[in-house]
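Checklist before submission:
- one chain only
- standard amino acids only
- sequence pasted in full

Submission:
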Amino acid sequence: MAEAVSQWQRIPNAGALFPDSSTLPVCSQGKRRRRASPGGDEAVSTPAIDVLAQRMIDTASLVSKAELEQFIQTGRSNRRPLQWVRFKIEAGTKFSFHAHPNIEVMYVVDGALLESRWRGPIQFRGPYSRGGRALGPDLSSAAQADFFDRRFSAGSIIFNEIGSVHRSFCSETEGCELFGFWGGCHARIPSEFQPPPAL
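Returned file contents:
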C-alpha cells in the first residue's frame, strides 16, 4: 500500500526547504531594527516539521481552501514564492496596519502575539504592487467597530489569507517567537491611509 503523503509534502521543492538537521532562518523584529540571519539556534528534525507543517496546513484549509491549494500545487501564493522563516519579536514591538498580498501561516512557538484585525469580509484583493511597492487598502475612514482584538499564545496557529488586514504587536512585557510560511513582505498601508489614531 502506498504511504500517505501529507499535504505540505506535496508543495514543490518542500523537501529541499528542510533537509535533515537544517536550521531555521531567523528574522529578529524589534522596536528599531529588523535583522535576518541564515540559521537558528537549534537544529529542527524532519519528523517534527512534518507534524507541525501538517497542523498548519490543516488549520489554513479551514479558512481558505482555494488559496491553500494554489500554494500546495505551485509553491506560490498570488504568484509569490513562500519560504519557511522563524521570527523573534521583542516585547513592546508594534507593527502598523498592513494587508497580506499572499497567504501566511504562522505557528506561535513561544510567548504571545496580539492583534487588531479587520472585521467582516475582505474588502481588497489587489493589485498590491503600485509604483513598484506592495501597498494595501485605504483604512482612513475605518471605525473602532471595524476591528476586533485577538491574542495568540504559544501553540496557536495564525492564518492570514490574501487580502486580510491587521495590526500585530507584543505586549510591553512579553515578546514572541513565530515559525511559518512567509512571502517576504506585507502590503504596507501608508500613514495617510492608516485608521484614526484612536484605534
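Reviewer check: Helices lie at 14-17, 46-63, 65-74.
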